[in-house]
Amino acid sequence: MTGSASIDAIAKDQPSAAARELRAHGLVRTYPIGRGAFGRAHTAVRAVDGVDLEITAGVTVGVVGESGSGKSTLGRLVSLLERPDAGRIVLDGRDTGRLHRAELQELRRRLQVVFQDPFGSLDPTKSIGHAVAEPLLVHRRVRRSGMATAAEELLTTVGLDPGLARRYPEQLSGGQRQRVCIARALALEPWLLVADEPTSALDLSTRSEILNLLLSLQQDTGLSILLISHDFATVQHLAHRVAVMYLGRIVEEGPTHDVVTNPQHPYTSALLSAVPVADPPRQRARQRVVLRGEAPNPARLPSGCRFRGRCRFAVAECATTDPQLTDLGSGHRVACLLHGAVGPAA
């Protein structure tokens, strides 16, 4: 089977655009961090705590937040690399928690992952061609004799010279290695790509190239992307919708333009104020929102609102009431008492 034939065969297995949908409901993931004398966990961290997420065909959803907010854990849950402790993930209408191993393996082809460190994602003992075409071999979409042709086609798709298939990871630049990882992720023609900090290990000019590549691939193929990043500017460049995470929860979510131009949660306002503006006079005139204090210990979360210790708008009710996401209209949701019965809007 040739490389082109293998890709055509995969395309027949893909669901229609109308059926391409991922829905996550009430996801919870807990990690033990302390154990007693008999090995029993007595302290745990809820890295993801009751998160709902929806991704549809041709849409980029950005997840943004500080380090430790649970973004990468959410990405591993969505990509089925880890199982949630509670909640469920429905992919293309099928509950992934109820599938047998063979069914889950077949469904996993529809989503792929690009990790933060491209060099750590590649086997230094294998050629670039082998790394890119290996998914096709594992899923029996191509014979070993057709791997070279398939690899060259995939490298061309991401703007690389097909001749690089004979090189090894250490012979490539950081940007080239990340393009190789994207080519490998596209080998099985998934409809959803989970990109976990895909540009944070690259220099500024290379970041732009990778982001533009993802945008071009989406426009050409209708690819959906879950973009995980601590950089609001990166998310703003690509995402149609954005979810802001803080200590395992989504505190604001909505269309990117609405969230960026009219942030409703104080934490979102603080993140946006840290994004530099290219116009020096405007940058100097901006009022920076500086968060006070430190983030609380995730193993000993405060009562009520988790952000109240760093919030300049905190009121007494914030210590007793845990805010839930409330729809403000047009799909813009926020979890903050400022938009309920207590206090003014942020």
UniProtKB/TrEMBL annotation:
SUPFAM superfamilies: P-loop containing nucleoside triphosphate hydrolases. One of its GO terms (molecular function) is ATP binding. This is Peptide/nickel transport system ATP-binding protein. It comes from Pseudonocardia thermophila. One of its GO terms (biological process) is peptide transport. Keywords: ATP-binding, Nucleotide-binding, Transport. Belongs to the ABC transporter superfamily. NCBIfam families: oligo_HPY.
